[in-house]
UniProtKB/TrEMBL annotation:
One of its GO terms (cellular component) is cytosol. It comes from Eubacterium callanderi. This is Cof-like hydrolase. It comes from the Bacteria. GO terms for molecular function: magnesium ion binding; phosphatase activity.
């Protein structure tokens, strides 16, 4: 029996233009009416994630959610737990390689996102995030001073840029796609499923009582680990092969609602 549903946001619950469809909202409410907990598990930083959680309109902001790709467990009032961080030696190794390869990046901690190179694509992306306080995103002259980083975030515009990002190597870290033209580097131990396992334990829910829906490589651990792992139709092929079920609808076609109505409700 499914007691908890965890949903990725971008390209899963959200449409391409970052909306939550009426059918998806209705399906989530139907699950909640049956006593199933609904949470989000996103690579977004907490404040950005809360904007969309509140837009669902079902009081989900009171629930705990997984943010920063598994780095934090939080609700609208507090960060309940930071799941870990990149140790300083690994952090400096990755940072040094980004500079050598001339790869601009953002660095996420549990409370802020930092960058040092202005006018990079991610500046434009995060500058458009609604409802996020500007002090939350800060420019620093020297990123090496940051402590307790959760992850590096990169945006690539060409295959050559992607190859440079993928060439970064550091033992104990993992590099993966986190969305369209987005790559992340974090510790292997930090992922959505590990955080969801902790979150579910707060309510006495076992991992085999969880259903997870996603589309990108950072969703693979939760899709693999949950009792029921599902992927929307537009998911990456590398993700689909790990899913128990691949939906017949995309994120722009109420893909979450289709999966919930067919396999949960």
């Amino acid at each position: 029996m499914v007691r908890l549903i965890a949903l990725d946001l971008d390209d899963t619950l959200l449409t391409t233009d970052k909306q939550i469809s009426r059918k998806n909202r209705e399906a989530l409410k139907a699950c909640m009416d049956r006593g199933i907990r609904v949470v989000t598990a996103s690579g977004r930083f907490n404040e950005s994630q809360l904007v969309f959680i509140k837009n669902v309109g079902l009081g989900l902001e009171k629930e705990y959610h997984v943010g920063d790709g598994g780095g934090t467990i939080f609700n609208e009032d507090k960060i309940l737990k930071v799941m870990g961080a990149i140790d300083k030696s690994r952090y400096l190794s990755v940072l040094s390689q980004t500079r050598e390869l001339k790869v601009p990046c953002f660095v996420a901690t549990s409370h802020n996102m930092f960058y040092d190179i202005p006018d990079q694509p991610l500046c434009r992306v995060y500058g458009k995030v609604p409802g996020v306080r500007r002090p939350y995103i800060e420019q620093l002259e020297d990123l090496s001073a940051i402590e307790n980083a959760l992850k590096f975030v990169f945006s690539y515009q060409s295959e050559e840029e992607l190859e440079r990002i993928q060439s970064i190597r550091c033992d104990g870290t993992i590099t993966f796609h986190a969305g369209r033209n987005l790559m992340e580097i974090t510790m292997e131990s930090l992922n959505k499923f590990a955080a969801l396992t902790e979150l579910a334990g707060l309510y006495g829910i076992a991992t085999d009582e969880m259903a997870c829906i996603g589309d990108s490589e950072n969703d693979i651990p939760m899709i693999e680990g949950a009792g029921l792992g599902m992927a929307v139709k537009n998911a990456m092929d590398s993700v689909k092969k790990h899913a128990d079920i691949v939906g017949e609808k995309t994120n722009d076609e109420d893909g979450v609602a289709w999966l919930l109505e067919k396999y949960i409700l």
